[in-house]
Structure formats: C-alpha cells, structure tokens
Specification:
By secondary structure, the protein is an alpha/beta fold. The protein folds into two domains: 2-240, P-loop containing nucleotide triphosphate hydrolases (Rossmann fold, 3-Layer(aba) Sandwich), CATH 3.40.50.300; 264-352, no CATH class. The protein is 31% helix and 22% strand. The strands form two sheets. An eight-stranded mixed sheet has the order 6-7-8-3-9-10-12-11, with helices on both faces. The chain has a four-stranded antiparallel sheet with strand order 2-1-4-5. The radius of gyration is 21 Å and the shape is globular. The protein starts with 18 loop residues before the first strand and ends in a 10-residue tail after the last helix. It binds adenosine-5'-triphosphate. Adenosine-5'-triphosphate binds at residues 30, 37, 39, 57, 59-65, 75, 117, 231, 296. Residues 30, 37, 39, 57, 59-65, 75, 117, 231, 296 line the site of adenosine-5'-triphosphate. Keywords: ATP-binding, Cell inner membrane, Cell membrane, Membrane, Nucleotide-binding, Translocase, Transport.
C-alpha cells in the first residue's frame, strides 16, 4: 500500500494524541434530479487509539454516512470526498480513500471492521454460522484451524456456547445471539477498529445493556478502538468515552461523554437529552424536539439548527458558527453556547448542580 502512505498529521483543535483514524473535511453528496443532496457536510474529527467514540444524532442526520465514509463504503452513486487516514499500530499511515479495491477489502476486515445497520439479516440462511467464519477466513487466506479457535474464544467472551454457535443455522438463533455472532465475525481477522452502526437497535433494552457490557470487556481484552453509532443518547453516553453529536450532516458538539452529559453546550444536544426517554426524568419533562431537521438538498444558510433553535437570531441565519472551545476536551458549534443552559434547561444532570 506504499502509494497510499500519508506523511503529515494535520493538527487541529480536535487532534488526538495518538490518532488511529483522522477524518478531514469528509463530505458525501448524491446528485439527484431535484438537486445535489449533501448528506455528510465537511466533517472533521480525530479518533484516538483505544477510545470508544459514540456518534449520536436523530434519524437521517448522517450517522450511517459517517460510518460508511470511514471505510470508503458509501453506496453508488454517492460521492465521498475529503481525507480519511488510518494509522495502523505498525507501519505507515494509510490514505483510505486512495486504496485499490483489493487493498480496501483487506483494510475493511483486518484493520477496520464494521457491523452494519440491519446486518443481522446479512447471514446466509443456508449456511451455518461456522461456515460463515470459514468463508471469511478463506477469502483472506487465513489459517482456518487457528481462525476457528479464535472464533470459539470470541464466542465464549460473548457468553455463547462455541460449539453450538458454530453448528447452528442463523434461524436457530435469537436476535441477541445473532448480534453477538456478528460481532464475533467482525473481529475474526483481528481488526484494530470496530465501527458499529446501531448494533443493538433491534434488541430489547435488557439485551442491549448486556451486549454493551460484553463489548466493554471485549474492547479491553482485544485492545479495540470502537466507533459506536446510535440515535439513543442515553445508551451511548453510558458506554462511550467521547461523544460526537451530528446534526444535519455535520458535527455540532464533540467532547468527553461525562462532560457532554453534565454540561451539554449545544442547544440541539440539550434538546436531544430532553427528548430521549430517561428513568431520571418524568414524562412531563420529556419534550420531542420541535420542527424538522433540514432537507439535505437545501441546507439552511448560517447555522443549520437556527430554524429550530430557541437562541437563533439574525446572526445565526447568515453566519455558520465555527467550533468554540468549552474546555480542552469539549467543543461546540454555536454562537451562543454560553447561554444554552438557560435556553434549554434540563431537569437533571449538570443544571441541578
Ligand atoms: N442512497 C441514497 N441516495 C440519496 N440519499 C440517501 C441515500 N442513502 C441515504 N440518503 C440520505 O442521507 C441522509 C443521511 O442518511 P443516514 O442513513 O446517514 O442517516 P442516519 O442518521 O444513519 O439515520 P437512521 O438513524 O435513520 O439510520 C438522509 O437524508 C437519507 O435520506
């Protein structure tokens, strides 16, 4: 992959000490009859080696586009631009968007692996789970005996009976078992990064929590970096080290999960916290976010959130805010973030201090 080597590490205010992935000005557009649909808009972020980054936002905000972009997996006719650099533990950095198809296949499984949204239905119903593992090991010329041993270890780490799993057909498994089998499959070629797009959305709350707990242990045991994508802020915030909040196809707030939960500084993040079910607040205090998120074909001028924002004024209609530093590990894109807590009060967390 020598041609794809990148030698410089651009420094930004969001730069990590030891990045495993850097994303610079990533955009995705679809050219449609009604105009150009911009479904990821100039996104820049660093992902730190070993961290769990939670990416949250409403449905349609561009979460899956961001996940797909990380692996150059945006479907045709989507056009992905920008720069995505992967820094393997050993060797030179790799420019993901310049890879040949065979190189990309290798990177996708052996370095950065992904559990796609709705992927549970991706199992072939005529093949056992074990055959799925063998197929993947074969396709990458990995030793089958060693690979299946690793599969067994992964199954037991995920609290599944290894022999039974390998000989089962997909329809013989529950949703939670299938999801864990997929996680095991995504880790079979020892990737460093696992990107998970709504991995637990189809499961009940108890099963979601139990899978998150298992992922927590697996992350440490296998030295993984996790990118966890979800619309469910409370679920992600209990699990992620850092949160990146997407609104209308761009990040509006990025920071330590605890800090964002306790002191969310973007009116949208605060509205999101208020709109999601939470055992600590009463039903009366829960509020859906009023208004609709923008159409990707006609992004509003200025701040994309201004049509729904209680703080929005004339400035916000023309002037798109840059990131402001809330703390060394917390940034927000809002002209008036210092007043966000008054404008969108929360009945729990930071505002009760
Ligand atoms: N193939 C496509 N062609 C054109 N537009 C698309 C295509 N796929 C997705 N989009 C649009 O891209 C935008 C972002 O979609 P994306 O799937 O990333 O959202 P999301 O935040 O993951 O939503 P959800 O939580 O519902 O999955 C949406 O407006 C969607 O309609």
């Amino acid at each position: 992959m020598a041609n794809n080597v990148v030698n410089t590490r651009e420094s930004t205010s969001r730069s990590a000490n030891d990045p495993i992935l850097t994303v610079r000005n990533a955009s995705v557009r679809f050219e449609m009859d009604k105009g150009v649909s911009k479904v990821l808009n100039d996104v820049t972020i660093d992902i730190e080696r070993g961290e769990t980054l939670g990416v949250v936002g409403e449905s349609g905000s561009g979460k899956s586009m961001f996940a797909d972009a990380l692996l150059d997996a945006v479907v045709d006719p989507g056009i992905l631009t920008g720069e995505i650099t992967y820094y393997p533990k050993e060797g030179d950095p790799i420019n993901v968007l310049d890879l040949e198809p065979w190189e990309l296949r290798e990177v996708r499984w052996e370095h950065i692996s992904m559990v796609f949204q709705g992927a549970m239905s991706a199992f072939n119903p005529t093949m056992t789970i074990g055959e799925h593992f063998e197929e993947t090991l074969d396709a990458h010329n990995w030793d089958k005996v060693e690979g299946l041993e690793r599969a067994k270890q992964l199954f037991s780490d995920l609290h599944l009976d290894p022999e039974r799993m390998l000989s089962s057909f997909p329809h013989e498994l529950s949703g939670g078992q299938k999801q864990r089998a997929l996680i095991a499959l995504s880790l079979i070629l020892e990737p460093e990064v696992l990107v998970m797009d709504e991995p637990t959305a189809a499961l009940d709350l108890l099963m979601q929590r139990s899978i998150l707990n298992l992922l927590y242990d697996i992350r440490d045991k296998y030295d993984l970096t996790l990118v966890f994508i979800s619309h469910d802020l409370p679920i992600v915030s209990g699990f992620a080290d850092r949160l990146a909040v997407l609104y209308a196809f761009e990040f509006v707030e990025v920071g330590e999960a605890n800090e964002i939960l306790g002191d969310a500084s973007h009116p949208y993040t605060r509205a999101l916290l208020k709109s999601t079910p939470n055992l600590e607040i009463s039903l009366e205090e829960m509020r859906p976010i009023e208004g609709e998120s923008p159409d990707p074909v006609s992004h509003p001028r200025g701040c994309s959130y201004h049509p729904r924002c209680p703080l929005g004024d004339d400035r916000c209609t023309v002037d798109d805010p840059e990131f402001s530093e809330v703390s060394a590990s917390h940034e927000v894109r809002c002209h008036y973030w210092e007043r966000a807590d008054e404008a969108v009060p929360l009945a729990f967390g930071g505002d009760d201090r």
